[in-house]
Amino acid sequence: MATVEAYETTAGRRYMVRFRTPERKQTKKRGFKTKRSAEAFASSLEVSILRGEFIDPTAARSTVHELGGAWLQRQTHLKPSTARAIESSWRLHVTPRWGSVPVAEIRRTAVQAWVSDLSATYSPTTVARAHGALASLLDDAVDDRRILTNPARGVNLPRKVRREHTYLDHQQVAALAAAAGRHETLVLVLAYCGLRWGEAAGLRVRDLDMLRQRMRINQNAVEVGSDIVIGTPKSHERRSVPFPAFLSLRLAAACEGKGRDDVVFHGDRGTYLKRSKSGTGWFSRAAREAGIDDHLTPHDLRHSAASLAVSAGANVKAVQRMLGHASASMTLDVYADLFEKDLDGVAVALETARLRAVSPG
After folding, report:
1. Residue 216 pairs with which residues in a beta bridge?
2. What is the CATH number of the domain that holds 260?
3. Of 151, 212, 260, 328, which has the maximum CB count within 10 A?
4. How many other C-beta atoms are found inside a 10 Å radius of the C-beta of residue 201?
5. Which phi and psi angles does 16 have, rounded to 5°?
6. Domain boundary among 264, 290, 310
7. Could you report how far apart the first and last alpha carbons of the chain are, in Å?
8. What percent helix, strand, coil does the chain show, rounded to 5?
9. How many Cβ atoms are within 10 Å of 2's Cβ, its own excluded?
């Protein structure tokens, strides 16, 4: 039970409230100018404890900066590239605005204003990452009973504008590959197998099953700053990806003279291959030489692989497995435009089946 006690200061009599937290820790709050205000606080305190809504006033005064270091250290479960992006977002966007603010003083309207200000300058992805970092820290603050609710949840975020996919046809892929020089086989693998860049860069000789025409995607090699970090594929989903027969001899040639643990596609001096620089790298030069938009990226070849597979008759489940999506619904969401023709095909197939069934003779 909370108790009210008077004490003397140079400014006159003041009152304090002594109480035990739900964890049975003895604590107090000082500085009440009147006994009535101290008693009101004591009453509200007892009600909050009974309701399970108690917030330790001392813990609530912790600032975002004071909690941020420990929160960042707890993000070790993330992939290095993701963790680096979050750390950068925290440093550039979260700390300047919220670092000195106690978590108990953050209001939803203030968070919404911050998000709106960021949206005027930065992309929806950048805004969402900054907001997500703040919201995650405040989730932890709720769990630690520093605040009762998370003021960052429920704010309106800018909508991401999905970039229209670029799909290359067989002739365009062939032209791009021919213009890519020593990277010709890599271009063909990206365009016909749908690998992410990091998955292709991390592909090892022992990952190829030439007899079954399969490549096992067990790792990726991702650039984090100036370093290459080896990890598991995105979503941690290892998978087996088929490759068409015409790639067999090309892949065999790419593996010639290499050990089982060597990478198939290597950079300078046998190191991991880094992503081609946009606009000036070999990929952009090849796109221009092939007469294709020089804004083309290696990831567009992954989209092209999906398009070529669907046009060849692959169903959504097969495309999902090839691309390593977490679910078929994700594949449908990303590539809904590719399956529009399937809807027309359903109507045609039903019409044909009906005519066969009901036609006389």
Report:
1. 240
2. 1.10.443.10
3. 151
4. 25
5. -125, 155
6. 310
7. 92
8. 55, 15, 30
9. 18
Using the CB atoms, write b or e for 267-282: b if 16+ within 10 Å: eeeeebbeebeeeeeb
Judge if 36 and 77 occupy the same domain: no
174 with 135, same domain: the answer is no
Length of the chain: 361
- Tens of pLDDT, residue by residue over 185-203, are 999 999 999 999 999 999 9
Give the domain-ending residue among 96, 125, 143: 143
Whether 130 is in a domain gets the answer yes
Amino acid identity for residue 358 in this structure: V
Angle at 303 between CA 300 and CA 304, to 5 degrees: 90
Distance CA 307, CA 35 (A): 74
Is 191 in the same domain as 122?
no
How many other C-beta atoms can be found within 10 angstroms of the C-beta atom of residue 114? Answer: 21
Number of domains within the chain: 3
Least Cα distance to 305 among 319, 286, 318, 316 occurs for 319
Domain of 237, in residue numbers: 170-310
CB-based contact 64:99 (threshold 8 Å):
yes
Q: What is the DSSP string of 179-206?
A: HTGGGHHHHHHHHHH---HHHHHT-BGG
Question: If DSSP states are collapsed to H, E and C, what string results for 90-159?
Answer: HHHHHHHHHCCCEHHHCCHHHHHHHHHHHHCCCCHHHHHHHHHHHHHHHHHHHHCCCCCCCCCCCCCCCC
Token pair 């969402």: residue: 128
Rounded to whole angstroms, the Cα distance separating 120 from 70 reads: 30
